[in-house]
Amino acid sequence: MIHEELSREIIGAAMDVLNELKPYRGELIGNLIPDLIVDDAVIVDHKVVSCFTDTHVAQMIGYLNITRLDLALLLTFKNARLEWKRVLRPQEPDERNDPDLHT
């Protein structure tokens, strides 16, 4: 799994934030926590939504393509439990180490 240990640390920290600020959940948390890139490796984007949509995922793929990073974490603080989604940058054919059958 890409950046497994770093992902666990980020998700754990987000859970701590949610537990600490539970009474202020919702838009307040959304305004307190900036979107960020952690260790030049993972884009972290928080939302205050009931569920992630294809639009959220497409936005993260766009950010991944621009930054050339491989992993984004979508986090939502809307519910009592933290929910997250890992989004991976689609690999270009030459990045997958697939043989080029057209040469």
Characterise this structure:
- By secondary structure, the chain is of the alpha+beta class.
- The chain has one domain (4-89).
- It contains three helices and four strands.
- It has a four-stranded mixed sheet.
- Helix 3 links the parallel strand 2 and strand 3.
- 17% of the residues are buried.
- The model has no long low-confidence stretch (mean pLDDT 84).
Number of helical regions: 3
Largest sheet features? 4 strands, mixed
Order of helices and strands: HHEEHEE
Which residues sit in consecutive blocks of at least 5 with pLDDT less than 50?
Answer: none
Q: What's the N-to-C terminus distance?
A: 31 Å
Overall structural class, as computed from helix and strand content, comes to alpha+beta
Shape: globular
In what range is the share of β-strand residues? 15-25%
Rg computed from alpha carbons, rounded to a whole number of angstroms:
16 Å
Q: Helicity range of the residues?
A: 25-40%
Question: What characteristics describe this protein?
Answer:
103 residues; alpha+beta; 36% helix; globular
